[in-house]
Description:
It is built from 7 helices and no strands. α5 packs antiparallel against α6. The longest helix is centred in the first third of the chain and has 26 residues.
Amino acid sequence: xxxxxxxxxxxxxxxxxxxxxxxxxxxxxxxxxxxxxxxxxxxxxxxxxxxxxxxxxxxxxxxxxxxxxxxxxxxxxxxxxxxxxxxxxxxxxxxxxxxxxxxxxxxxxxxxxxxxxxxxxxxxxxxxxxxxxxxxxxxxxxxx
Length: 144
């Protein structure tokens, strides 16, 4: 019985890859990106202010909009499997900035603040794994 279960999961490894990619994309697009975009310039300025921790103090609205677009568009790219590696790379940078922001404001990445770390790890996995078998990247010959 155990062998049959393991064989089933081994045969369907690409389905797991698809679940990871779509799940992370859904989280980025619908649970973060769209809401951040809808927050408008006030929200973007607040988010973009995190760039000050890197010595970048100009145009916080622009940086916040860029982060919102990274999560929304990047999430969509992950979900449909198009430009997965570039999207994952941009999302990793975005999660890194969020982690630095949390560390500077609360001194910890515990509890809800750990979400950016968790997402970053998932995006890092996709950066290495690529889009997988069930993706537009594979269909158009843009990578695996």
